[in-house]
Amino acid sequence: MRSPAPRALLATASVAVALAAADTYVVVLALTDMMTGVGLGIDALQRATPIISGFLLGYVAVLPLIGRLADLVARQRILVACLAIFVVGSAVTALAVELPVLVTGRVLQGVGGGGLVPATLALVADLWPAGRRGVPLGVVGAVQELGSVLGPVLGAVVLAVSGWRTIFWLNAVAGVVLAAAVVVAGGRRPARPRPVPLVLGALAAVVTAVALAAPARLATDVTLGVPFVPFGSSTSRLATPIGVVALVLVLAWLAVNGPRWRAVLSGVDLLGALLLAVALGSVVLTFAASDPVRDVVGPLGYALLPFGALAFGAYLWRHRQTETPLVARGVVRGRARYALAVSLFVGAALVSVVVDVPVLARLTLTHSQTGAALVLVRFLVAVPVGALLGGWSLRRLGDGVVSGVGLALSALGLSAMSRWGAGALDHPSTTVVLALVGLGIGLALAPVNNAALAAAPDDAHGVASALVVVARMVGMVVGLALLTAIGLHRYYATVAALPDQSDTKALVAAGVVQVQTVFTGAAVAAVLGAVASAGLGLRRDHQVVGGATPL
């Protein structure tokens, strides 16, 4: 069944993607308040790392599984399910007063938000035939990057008038509204809810919310407060009688829905999904949890990396042995391989600018975090513009041409940035260079997705889109860790060579050397991405044109 309003459905799904993208960056300004909300002091920043890495873990690790499910189940249902997970994660995050609960909420947000991306990209493949997907893919890429721009801004506005928990309550409300809009725009009537799962689900949600919120009027009452008294010496709100009841209700709801989910999951290689999730999770936790000042990998990295490599090797063996692997045979071939490579390099180049432009601004221009972030806006605004332009260009040009030109422009701009020093950000040319880099990176977004979708079989668009997103996220996580480590090596070498290591100006200059090194590495990543873009196809008439699968 095809949607009667494909553009409305795509628009709704794209807004949902933007919401998830905004949530990725919203913690940048709210992190210290969130730490205080779960009892962490400002000096315990390292302990707060899971708040960020937990979201990334949820975002990346289960993407292949969700992509596969999007190929087996109607895209609408996957979108609604992902929004539901996102809403639950947002509510749990808003209610959290202890770190494990907060991290759990962030992981759920990552799972739901990350799953929206491949489902939306696969939706484009359903609604538009190959050769006409450029513009809608550009729209998805542009809206996603626009969400990244608006995330910190909206977070700042909310924090100016309310607390950090309001951010996540607004996320929950927006998720509910968008889920309803997806149902309406898709034109598919939702299945009539069964009474028992509905009642159990509602009861589990209410009791869990009450257990986590522990309203003062109830918790401090002599009689009504008994269910909120923790067991033993525990201080957790879940280690209470009402917390146990909430857990039992959640397990009961899962058990009642088990048969329905089992029917859906029967076509999925769950063992393969688990192995791939372990491999991807090991990479995320190794690099995202690291302290770049001291080391490249996180505290458990040297154990996680071999474990992840073993899990990936086991997945490859499983892929060859099973009849229906998680990633269907034929998905990672031809142009799709180049699409993954380009996406990896785009991620590395993108994150280098996002992280190190504010660092340079703090070193040479302003001590204000907000002022430093405003410098980055010049780049962030150009990325969605480039995404739209890149999608439109695919009407006449091949994927490789658009992506290659875009990344070549980015490489030129990053090369210029690698020579920026004190006073560079005051010059008007800064805006031109940042806009050029952002525009170039944006140009590559639609061609990469277009090539991956065109190369994949019609029944594997979801998992193909998921792999492109995974490659980009891995490029961001690993690229940032490696380039920052190289930059810090040069920083320490420069400081060691100083005759007077108490000279403030000299130390600032050494910090600039670190940032310049990162920009140089980002330029190399952009060049490699431009070269790999040749494999995406240089002529439009060489692009595979296939049919569309029904919704």
List descriptors:
disordered C terminus, 18 helices, 551 residues, mainly alpha
Please provide a written account of the structure.
The structure is a single chain. This protein has 551 residues and is mainly α. Helix content is 74%, strand content 0%. It contains 18 helices and no strands. α5 (99-127) packs across α17, α13 runs antiparallel to α16 and α13 packs parallel to α17 (461-496).
- Mean of residue pLDDT values: 85
Helix content: over 70%
- Sequence stretches where pLDDT stays below 50 over 5 or more residues: 541-551
Radius of gyration of CA atoms, rounded to a whole number: 24 Å
Question: How large a portion of the residues is in β-strands, by DSSP E?
Answer: under 5%
Q: Secondary-structure element order, as H and E?
A: HHHHHHHHHHHHHHHHHH
Largest sheet: none
Task: Outline the secondary-structure elements.
Layout: H1 6-37, H2 49-61, H3 63-72, H4 75-95, H5 99-127, H6 134-161, H7 164-186, H8 195-213, H9 216-219, H10 241-265, H11 270-288, H12 301-321, H13 335-364, H14 369-393, H15 399-417, H16 429-455, H17 461-496, H18 504-532
Helix pairs in contact: 1-5, 1-6, 1-7, 2-5, 2-11, 3-5, 3-17, 4-5, 4-7, 5-17, 6-14, 6-16, 8-10, 11-12, 11-17, 13-14, 13-16, 13-17, 13-18, 14-16, 15-16, 15-18, 16-17, 17-18
Short description:
By secondary structure, the chain is mainly alpha-helical. Helix content is 74%, strand content 0%.
